[in-house]
Amino acid sequence: MGERSVVSVEIPSFPAPVSIAHPTGGQTNFVLVRHGRTEGNVRRVLVGRNDIPLDALGERQAEAVGAFLAATHSPDVVISSPLIRAHNTARAIAARFNLPISFDAELMELNFGAYEGYSLQEIQREDSEFAATFGDVEHDRQWPEGERLSEFHGRVMHAFLRIAGEYPRHTIVVVSHGGVLGSLAAQLLGTHPNDWARFQIQNCSVTQVEFGLDGSTIHCLNEIGHLADVTDEATP
After folding, report:
1. Can you give the pLDDT at residue 234?
2. Within a 13 Å sphere around the CA of 131, how many CA atoms are in the beta-carbon half?
3. What's the average pLDDT block by block, 10 residues per block, for the chain (236 residues)?
4. Where along the chain do its domains lie?
5. Dihedral of the alpha carbons of 68, 180, 29, 205, in degrees to the nearest 10
6. How far apart are CA 102 and CA 26, in angstroms?
7. Kind of pairing between the strands at 28-34 and 171-176
8. So what's the architecture of 28-227 in CATH?
């Protein structure tokens, strides 16, 4: 998978990590990238299926992660969520390797349904009873007109195991979303995937996951050193 730079965020330790073997007995290496920054990230609102583009900083982040991966990895495949923020990030990466981009709908972000575009504070004002469930990690929340959390987490794991089965001896760049990558990391590390606070996957960070014959391994989580010089030019 190439040399790794310093991991920016330590991999958490949990008492019961879950090691999941490769579904076909192969070895698939995933290089996981969250999309670049969007206006929704700046406004701190829920953006699941709302199809919004990268902002100016997000575009620079995408170029930076593309350059980083070009210097450190040799992927065989680039797969992206079809949402434009992921697509645009994947395009900056794929161009470095002259690879096509495949799109996979199972890699899309959690569907927040009726609360797309809301901040947590706005949800609290709109429906305090629903908002009260946010503090209960065990609560299997059903987003109104959106997804149930358990179904979302199942979709995430199914997607990665399916892709591993389709590419049994490959290195794959996957460009997706914070919720998706956080869910995968949580499930592999043995903590509850609803505990979002433990896995704040940052824009254009890199996480490396391997599925092999003997199980799964997270080699690095939320690596952001390549973004050190990428700044928001609008900030004084």
Report:
1. 56
2. 12
3. 35 58 97 98 97 98 98 98 98 98 98 98 96 92 97 97 97 98 94 86 97 95 97 66
4. 28-227
5. 20
6. 21
7. parallel
8. 3-Layer(aba) Sandwich (3.40)
> What DSSP string runs through the chain?
-------SBPPP--SS------TTS--EEEEEEE---BHHHHHT---SS----B-HHHHHHHHHHHHHHHHH---SEEEE-SSHHHHHHHHHHHHHHT--EEE-GGGSPP--GGGTT--HHHHHHH-HHHHGGGG-TT---B-TTS-BHHHHHHHHHHHHHHHHHHSTT-EEEEEE-HHHHHHHHHHHHTS-TT-GGG--PPTT-EEEEEEETTEEEEEEEEE-GGGTT---TT--
Tokens 């007995």 belong to which residue?
A: 25
Contact predicate 173/79, CB 8 Å: yes
pLDDT at 17: 63
